From TrEMBL:
Biased composition (Basic and acidic residues): 728-740
InterPro entries registered for this protein in UniProt: GPAT/DAPAT, Plipid/glycerol_acylTrfase
Organism: Linnemannia hyalina
Name used for this protein in its record: Phospholipid/glycerol acyltransferase domain-containing protein
Pfam families recorded: Acyltransferase
Gene Ontology BP terms: phospholipid biosynthetic process
Length: 740
């Protein structure tokens, strides 16, 4: 299939996402069928127009998303959506109108379906099939019969306590009239796309929101799948669930994980039930919707509230061992398992007590202005003073490097912030499910920047052109200089962003150093360390006690390699070029800033990189190690048996056969006995890495023997157990058979 306008627009938005997000990492993208019709079902819809762009970027297929007609009627948004082959959907809530008068229940128990109006005009404002909706979306019901202007019959009774409270009020309740929408044209378009072997994307929650859990799903996706299969039984249709997991959805340079579930094949018996219509059709839709919902829960993080989510994240960081880094996709998986465990045992007295302790610990951290990963950093006062001065110098230097781009783009940042906050307030006022309207912030920041930055950069080019006129230059050189300035400004902006990130990371590390040199504050830090240590032990013991009840194969001592299919995100080649240029130019700075082992270009802003996760079953696991350590440059055997160095920064996460919960065989990182301390594993691996690149006294045959798992190599008197690196599950089985 040749290039289409879709591909050019996708490339453009990919560049925007590379700039807005620090990292987007997919999980399970290998599960997506590369051919044939697919319905992508994504949730939670936490980032309005950004969500389809992120999904489109990572799925590797051309996807036609269902979009609200209200949004597609907007000039620029509609143009972009149509270029992406989006399918407009007219929603009843977009056409809702306030009804005249008020409504109430005259007889709650005797006639719960009969609605009485006070000053209403039912015959003029409603039709059979329309819906009436109560304030704050506490209840909605379809109209089945209109008796008069002040009396009608609804299809289902209102059972929610808030709805009953409104309807039993003597003065009645305000209401909205929602017209019945004929979506046959939408379904027809979807069926045509699927029959042509294309992909369709849908957000079944019906709208974006900023809640910590998924909203109830709409049944439209089931009608699309079952209807398409009913019309074409030979259609090889798959449903792929997509979990959109953002760390801070609305923040600039935040991180995200896009997780894809196993493709769902619709059972033929559900298609037959759908064909028969009536109650069986509704039952078939309900069963398929339940299947999709459970699949979505498996790829999303669903905390009951924000407070619980904060406790879960804190408990995840406290879970031993410390000072190990994870990929963000692995952090999301750990969060999900902690939430599942918490929801299962939330009434357990030990869990309640641990939750209270974690909340108190979080409060202490906020009071002292510290982050969890900073508590265990120990310095002598002399060392702290020296490092404080060094980091202050580094921060000032990085600030100077970031200043030009910051000042040039400050007008855009200010305008984007003002407009996005205004739009968030408008969205919150018009919604019944949003908490603070944060789901629209990122969208409007991108839209404002997309509109203002080209204008701003052009104005800077004009200024350069005018300034060059002071030097009596000819027109052509002035135009060339102005054009060069216009082309250079984006690179200056990107470099300023990267330098600014490092400067912010340094700034966040200054407070614990400052506290270390203040007389008397050492006791405060020591108390926090003791509290953290006790809390770590409490959480670890609690997990080791309770985890086997929901994970029968739980193994608290297993240390496993990360999942190979957690590959780096797809990114635009233009952005990769900018990153390559920046990283090459900044290498001396990187070495200087990283000399104390605390900073690198990929530093995680919320200390998630300091977490470790081996709370997994032996059929899928994660080994916590740094994203920026020397494992990325390990030697791996090539196909012909020779050794070559993998230059990829993420090679340590994409090599090997170990996967997370995928049913593949696993291989422990090391053959060190489980009863040995983890520090001993770290020490031996560290020694192995230092000598891995070859000591002159070590022969090639010794190296090959050690790599083949046939013996231990001795370096400087330290015996290091063999570490086998396999590329496929078959290699793993073969190596284990050989060892036996």
């Amino acid at each position: 299939m040749g290039l289409q306008i879709y591909d050019f627009v996708s490339f453009f938005f990919t560049i925007l996402l590379d700039i807005f997000f620090r990292e987007i990492r997919p999980r399970g993208a290998h599960k997506i069928p590369q051919k044939g019709p697919v319905i992508f079902v994504a949730a939670p819809h936490a980032n309005q127009f950004v969500d389809p762009l992120v999904l489109m970027r990572e799925c590797g297929r051309r996807v036609s998303f269902l979009a609200a007609k209200k949004s597609m009627d907007r000039r620029w948004i509609g143009a972009g959506a149509r270029s992406m082959n989006s399918i407009p959907v007219e929603r009843p809530q977009d056409l809702a109108k306030a009804g005249s008068g008020t409504i109430k229940l005259q007889d709650r128990y005797g006639a719960p379906l009969r609605i009485i109006g006070l000053g209403t005009k039912f015959t003029k404002e409603l039709l059979v099939g329309d819906q009436i909706s109560l304030p704050k979306d506490v209840g909605t019901s379809a109209v089945v019969e209109i008796i008069s202007d002040t009396e009608l019959i609804v299809k289902k009774e209102f059972k929610d306590l808030k709805a009953l409270e409104l309807l039993t009020n003597p003065e009645g309740s305000k209401y909205k009239c929602l017209p019945h929408m004929d979506q046959s044209n939408v379904y027809k378009t979807v069926f045509e796309r699927l029959n042509a072997g294309h992909c369709v994307g849908i957000f079944p929650e019906g709208g974006s929101h900023d809640r910590a859990e998924m909203l109830p799903l709409k049944a439209g996706v089931t009608i699309m799948a079952l209807g398409a299969l009913a019309a074409n039984p030979s259609l090889d249709l798959k449903i792929v669930t997509c979990g959109l997991n953002y760390f801070h959805p609305h923040r600039f340079r935040s991180r995200a994980v896009v997780e894809f579930g196993e493709p769902i094949t619709v059972p033929p018996e559900l298609v037959e039930m759908y064909k028969r219509g009536g109650p069986e059709k509704r039952e078939a839709c309900g069963k398929l919707l339940d299947t999709i919902y459970e699949a979505l829960r498996g790829v999303t993080l669903n905390a009951p509230d924000y407070e619980t989510l904060m406790v879960i994240q804190a408990a995840r960081r406290l879970y031993k061992p410390t000072h190990r880094k994870l990929q963000i996709s692995q952090v999301v998986e750990l969060n999900r398992r902690f939430v599942a465990g918490y929801m299962h045992f939330k009434d357990n007295p030990k869990v309640i007590e641990a939750k209270d302790k974690v909340m108190h610990y979080n409060t202490q951290l906020r009071y002292h202005g510290l982050r969890d990963h900073q508590v265990n950093i120990r310095f002598t006062r002399r060392h702290a003073i020296g490092m404080l001065l060094s980091r202050l110098a580094q921060m000032i230097f990085m600030s100077c490097l970031a200043l030009p781009g910051t000042l040039m783009n400050l007008p855009v940042a200010i305008v984007a912030r003002v407009i996005s906050n205004k739009k968030a307030k408008e969205a919150l006022a018009a919604s019944t499910v949003k908490i603070a309207g944060r789901d629209v912030l990122a969208t409007w920041k991108l839209l404002v920047a997309l509109g203002l930055m080209p204008v701003l950069y052009f104005s800077y080019s004009v200024m350069v052109f005018i300034y060059c006129g002071r030097f009596d230059l000819a027109l052509k050189p002035r135009l060339l200089i102005a054009w060069a300035a216009w082309a250079l400004i984006p690179f200056v902006t990107y470099a300023s962003i990267r330098f600014g990130e490092v400067g912010i990371d340094i700034f966040k590390s200054i407070r614990p150093l400052f506290l270390s040199i203040i007389p008397g504050e050492e006791n405060t830090i020591d108390e926090l360390r003791r509290a953290r240590s006790e809390l770590q032990k409490t959480i670890t013991d609690l997990i080791n006690e309770l985890a086997p009840e929901i994970y029968p194969d739980f193994d608290s001592t297993r240390i496993l390699d990360p999942k190979p299919n957690d590959r780096p995100s797809r990114s635009a080649s233009g952005t990769n070029l900018a990153q390559t240029i920046f990283n090459t130019a900044a290498q001396p700075l990187s070495q200087w800033l990283g000399k104390d082992g605390r900073f690198d270009w990929e530093r995680t802003e919320d200390s998630d990189a300091d977490d470790v996760f081996f709370f997994l079953n032996p059929t899928g696991g994660i080994q916590g190690r740094s994203r920026a350590n020397s494992w990325g440059g390990a030697y791996t055997p090539s196909a012909d048996g020779s050794r070559s160095r993998n230059r990829s920064r993420t090679s340590s996460f994409t090599s090997g056969q170990i996967q997370l919960g995928e049913g593949f065989k696993l291989e422990a990182l090391t053959e060190l006995p489980r009863d040995k301390p983890f520090a001993e594993v770290t020490r031996r691996l560290s020694v192995s890495r230092k000598h891995r690149h070859g000591l002159e006294g070590m022969t090639r045959s010794d190296t090959e023997e050690n790599e083949g798992g046939q013996g231990h190599a001795t370096y400087g008197g330290v015996s290091t157990p063999p570490i086998s690196i396999s590329q496929h599950a078959d290699d793993y089985v073969a190596s284990k058979t050989k060892d036996v």
